[in-house]
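Sync notes, pocket subgroup
Present: LS, DG
LS reminded everyone that the earlier model was apo-only. Rerun requested with magnesium ion included. Inputs:
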Amino acid sequence: MGEFGLIGRLTAALGGDAAAGQVESARLGGGLLVGIGDDAAAWMQPNAVLVATTDMLVEGIHFNLDWTSWYDLGWKALAVNLSDVAAMGAAPGVALVSLGLRPDTPIADVEAFYAGMQELATVSGCTVAGGDTVSVCSDTVINVAVLGSMPAAEAGTLLRRGHGRPGYRLGVTGFLGASAGGLHALRTGVDVTVSGVGALLDAHRRPQPRLEAGAALRAAGVRCAMDVSDGLLADLGKLCATAGCGATVRADSLPVHPALRSLFPDMALGWAAGGGEDYELLFAAPHDVMERAVAALMLLGLPATDIGELVTDPDVRIVDGAGQSVTIQAPGWDHFGHA
Ligand SMILES: [Mg+2]
């Protein structure tokens, strides 16, 4: 069934339209602006739009303590949630953290987890404000929820997956594939002193949520965005399914991380297209808005790349420089579909 299929089934069980992303219209009565099927939920309060998102990380599925420090785990558990807040163009407020820990977990490890989380919270303007701790029999479980906001008057500018339209240019921030390359380096024991490996490890261990970029995109007039967590092509497929369109992506335009090109030339393009855990922002906008947005991101010191366009035909096509369809081995990350 896959994660996307499961979400559709559960959405139907909650009384929404089974097509993820189409639920909010049925539920606007409660002030809900965005329901299931986007990066975060959003609802209206008298003076603000509130957004909420949550992510669960399970040992052995999402992280491996053999090569992940508790400090980095704390950073990353918050980062993946802040990335979803960024993908709505909102600002984070508070985080709630629930841990399922084995009884023999050293307290120093738990302290390191919170220290890593606090470092990112401080630079992100987010406060860790509570949570829950329980004991588990085997695998460690981490759940973080983040609440954020934006001014009520700006409710119409929320970044939405479904706001893409055929003809819009398609952009992505930063570089792609570095996290997958870093994970590969950790799994295979690549020499960390080799030039470029450190950048890949950093990308995997401490992803940088694009909060400033999300705000800048919104200010530039962009209205369609999502974060790239499951791999560019997998996430683009979700954006297109929600927006009711397709996309054409130029393979030679993908911003492959430079360290990947030199260290893993054979895998670089596949990881950039489908490696996952990039936590960059994928966005779509009319041509003039896209130019403004790319310029605004440059002022933040964050490169952004035009990688193609949204089209009427519902497929996601990858093309070469001559416009011919090509195939990239890019499995993506499906939480319920991978071995
Ligand atoms: Mg997301």
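DG: Residues 20-27, 332-339 have pLDDT under 50 and may be disordered.
LS: Residues 39, 84, 87, 226-227, 229 surround magnesium ion (CB under 6 Å).
Action: DG to write up.
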